[in-house]
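Long-time lurker. I teach an intro course on protein structure, and each term I like to show students one example going from raw sequence to a predicted 3D structure in token notation. This year I'd like something fresh instead of my usual example. Would anyone be willing to generate the tokens for the chain below so I can use it in lecture? Attribution to the forum is fine with me.
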Amino acid sequence: MSRRPDELWIAAITETVASYRRMLDGILAQLSDEELRARPQAGMNSVAVIVRHIGGNLRSRWTDFLTTDGEKPDRDRDREFMDWEGDRASLMAHLDTGWNALTSAIGTINASNADRVIFIRGEGQTVAEALTRSITHLSYHIGQIAFLARLVHPGPWKWLTIPPNQSEEYNRTTWGTGPAPSASRRAFILRALVPAAAVIYGPSMLVALYAIAFVPCSHCKVAAAVVIPPGPALLPLDLLRQTLGMPRPGDLTGYAIALVVSVLLLAGLSALMRLGRGLALLCALAGLPVTTLIAIVTLRMIQM
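-- Reply from a regular --
Happy to contribute to a lecture. Here you go:
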């Protein structure tokens, strides 16, 4: 069952917030306590200062956000831009308080209150607008933190995005990957894609079978076994790969998959020719869905 638009929006927001926290944690883990507090030069904030500001902002904005103004009376924003007095653990606890207020608030937002007007410094805005504003504010400051961290950390750096000069390799290994298909997507595979793949794959298999069994030219037999079946097979295999959310294999790998599946089936069908042409053709037709299922299983095994 497909999700409603408001559910999709909240799920996207939730994952975006989680991705920013992973990036933030990845940055902070690479900084020493001294680097965390270091200001690159006079008038610039340290990483610790911005972390302090994020925690204070989120706590104020999202604690009781439906019933109170987002700028709480007990918030001292100016103090957030002063050096943190405590240790690293207390700073992270301060951040977690604000971050948990945000994630808890997101968990309560739905279609019934997303258009509700709330207030920040007396300015009215919908919950959806306030949440979008908070996410952009968060991304802005985490980008600052990433930049400041590189300025104060002279040692090796573990890249949290695609490392320099590795874009091509990243695309090659991750292109087409994604979440597992939903139940509705799997149902689509069984109802529509499998029969369609069988229809595309079937005629070429029968042509190749006929060539192998009845054409006297040995070169024609080899061409039929190697060229004819894999060509049409690549299309249904690629459709299945995209539908199942699997990574794109290299061209030679894709051809090899199609070739192996084709040759295995052709070998079995050729053996059946000894039982009679009619029975062999009947078995070929009956085996087309099985052929496609074999392709699915093959792709599944490659993904694992």
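Some talking points for your students: The longest helix spans residues 183-214. The first strand starts at residue 117 and ends at 120.
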